Amino acid sequence: MLRARSCGHSPLISSPAPVVPSVSSASASLVLRPAAAPDLVEIRALLVETWHDTYDPLFGYEEVASFTDRLHAVEKLAGELGRASHVFLVAEREDGLAGTVSATLGDDRVLTIGRLYVRPAQQRAGIGRALLEAALAAFPTAQVARLEVERGNAKGRAFYERNGFTWTAKIGHAGAGEALVYERPLPGALPRLARDEDAQDLFGLLALCFAEYPGCYVDPHEDLTDLRHPSRSFGQRGGAFWVAEDARGRVCACIAIDYPAEREGELHRLYVRPDLRRRGLGERLIRLAEDHARERGARNMFFWSDTRFTNAHRLYTRLGYLRADATRALGDVSNSVEYRFEKAL
Description:
alpha+beta, Aminopeptidase, 2 domains, 31% strand, elongated
């Protein structure tokens, strides 16, 4: 985590068109690709097999057969091919299709996962996770992923909970049990310049990040004075302060930059809420600040980061920042000692 006189800095790019990866790392022989018309008969067979395996114990064979005849007819599946703001993917192995997923992005930036199934014999091999992550990655502006799971589908619920989803509501289906609505926040909020009314959210964000490190404290009176009026704290010095919001409009990440010397930019206040880390949001914010610096003629970047923030240091190293020999002690309430990191632009 980067710092600007306090303990911390932790640990977005719009395009409505899906960006679909072609190969998944779940298996060397597994290929992820968009579904095509010649796949539809095999996709239907995969769905029928998987639905009977999943739902016969809940609803019985005849009712499940009726569902699949109605929902997975080839003609209905064909209607998903080429739809706007929609992905329809398959996972293919040498012996045929192993799984499929579909997802649709709404105007509210909610990505609805409509269908994710893997053949029973090939489950627990990473295929479902690969399909899920490919669908999420296809829409980088999505702010939240949402789906429904039958309450009695314990295996499906466990899968989504392992992959960052939590259930938020219940939906009753007459004659067909009860479904649970699951959601997962995504780092799809486009960054914007901070406003003064963001101050409370920013203090809350820092408190969450600092809580991970014993001895780190949020001190708005001495060390975090720039957060009291974030709209002008860095702008007055020729820099900028950006925040990103989650699907509920709460500030979930931030970064700032100023220019203490000619052609030199200093990063500050990189924080990402713990539940949104490891999804590329921190890297995107750093890239945003670097682009700002280049536009202003900066040739070098640097920042100071607490010696305790070893997880964040791995991100900085991966992005080309090198730790210098210099350290400094702040003498603040958190007894912070910091490393200096540098990078040539």
